[in-house]
Amino acid sequence: MTTAAPGDIVRIHYSGRLTDGTQFDSSEGRAPLEFKLGEGQVIKGLEQHVAGMETGAKSTVTIPVAEAYGPRRDDAIQQLDRDKVPEGIDLQVGTQLQARTADGGMLPITVVGVDDASVTVDANHPLAGKDLVFDVELVEVVKAA
């Protein structure tokens, strides 16, 4: 059996759920998720769990908030003047938008409040502040050259 180590490319099948059992994502019916261990392409806790697994192994891991999407941050919720939002955007609670960051990157935000004068947006990841549970199967390991 091949064991996954930093620098390897791994392919996993997974199912992610909250601690209350609510599923939030799964690779079921799709190609396995592929990422390079040690590159930070997936959340820290999942990456740490997969490192050391052997091809074909299946396991379940609970990933605490700090190793998932981190705690919810109050400073990630901001109120904007409604006239700062471009015309033509349908502003409703739950609408997903993109904001440009100071360094030119894009940041996904969610509308959490709307009135005649302002729009309240939340830049927290939807899974921030939550412990996550993953069922993982390591399908393949491509060893680093």
Task: Write up what this structure looks like.
There is one protein chain. With 145 residues, this protein is mainly beta. Helices cover 5% and strands 41% of the residues. The chain has one helix and nine strands; from the N terminus they run βββαββββββ. Strands 1, 2, 3, 4 and 9 form a five-stranded antiparallel sheet that branches. A four-stranded antiparallel sheet has the order 5-8-7-6, with no helix packed on it. The longest helix has 7 residues, at 44-50. It starts with 8 loop residues before the first strand and ends with a strand. The relative contact order is 0.30.
Keywords:
about 140 residues, four-stranded antiparallel sheet, mainly beta, elongated
Helix-residue proportion: under 10%
Uncertain spans, ≥5 residues at pLDDT below 50?
A: none
Task: Give the count of helical stretches.
Answer: 1
Characterize the overall form.
Answer: elongated
Global mean pLDDT: 94
